[in-house]
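Final report, closing paragraph on structural work. Over the funding period we assembled a curated collection of sequence-structure pairs, and we close with a single example.
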Amino acid sequence: MEYFVERESIVRKIWGKGDTILFIFAGASAEFALNKAVDWLYFTGKLPADPLGRLFSTVTYARKIVFSEKETALKAIDKITAIHSAVEASRQSRIPDWAYRDVLFMLIHYSIASYEVLEKPLTYDEKEEVFDVFYRFGKRMNLQGLPQSFEEWLVMRKDHLANHLEKSHYTIDLYRQYRKHLGRIRYKLLLEGQILVVPTEVNQLLNLGKFPVLKAILMPYKFFRAIKLDWFVKSVILPNKYKSEIKALDIPI
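Its predicted structure, as stored:
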């Protein structure tokens, strides 16, 4: 049986761990808020209304792509394309190609950064694996102007960070929604997690700071993970209504 992502791929290890996914969400939630095309995320109203629900919805699609047989994964990508096409038709406007690329670039960056924060540095070949999976994702969506290699992605990523981010009223409102849905303590943990994985350009625009307290907590957390109690820590971090989703974040590899 052919899979979209090979069984031994580092991408499965990254997306098979709940704590890594939570850091991917933390980083992406920061960069999404700064993206110059963030108004598209506000058009349906779903993101500001339920940012955590959108997380688990995104995870569901990512899991189908990363862990499914190839044809099933391709159908999941096609469904994502269809959803975006419907939004474009409703708004009678097209989402810019660069905005699609930005999302793809976020998935590449935060997959790598989150794993390295929680586990260990990836080799160059492993980073290329991450790039390849999301490159094929983008090709299936018929995205234009995609980088053809990891090296080319590094150059384009730097350009996108320099030209496609700004702090706007959407940024302020989205962070207000994060705080509303997470509560003060969990919101603080979100900001701490963002400091650990976001690029310098994102940190500077959001003024997140340089010395995350969360970094000191990672070692004891890894101990909890070693004795299989990390699900309890995650259940404390996220609201009770998402307990079942939290437990489902981890997939045996």
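The radius of gyration is 17 Å. Residues 15 and 63 are 7 Å apart (CA to CA). We thank the funder for supporting this effort.
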